[in-house]
Design a protein that fits this description.
4 helices; 130 residues; alpha/beta; 3-stranded mixed beta sheet; 31% strand; 7 strands
């Protein structure tokens, strides 16, 4: 089964040794042999979350400095690493008051060193929360 990059980034969290998945694919006979080209990969049964997955990834933004571009960049980073770990945004104003916002499950992530690099400037609070 061949998986193109755009499909792989959406399903990477489901591709683990020993994990059972359902694959939607098309049959491709054009080249040297027959192959399947995956368009979707889903788990057949729900995976129990790991203990570390239950803790949210917390991203902190200062409300007086965060821009629309910052939010767009965060959204793109979260979409690139889909997974089962929840994400929280903490907005802090100039007086230290905090607003905590849990993000929808469609933006849950699969932690990785690359994701950590992408969101490093906002990861000022650890998974323990406030």
């Amino acid at each position: 089964v061949m998986i193109w990059n755009d499909t792989f980034t959406k399903c990477a969290a489901h591709l683990e040794t020993g994990r059972v998945v359902a694959i939607t694919a098309r049959l491709d006979k054009r080249e040297e042999g027959v192959r399947l080209v995956a368009s979707e990969v889903k788990p057949l049964r729900p995976q129990l979350p790991k203990a570390s997955d239950a803790l949210p990834m917390v991203l902190t933004l200062r409300r007086d400095f965060a821009t629309e571009a910052d939010l767009a960049e965060l959204k793109a980073a979260l979409e690139e690493f889909p997974g089962s770990r929840p994400v929280e945004l903490h907005f802090v104003n100039g007086h230290g008051a905090k607003i905590r916002m849990r993000i929808a499950a469609q933006f849950f992530v699969s932690p990785s060193p690359r994701l950590q690099e992408r969101v490093a400037r906002w990861t000022t609070v650890t998974a323990e929360g406030f």
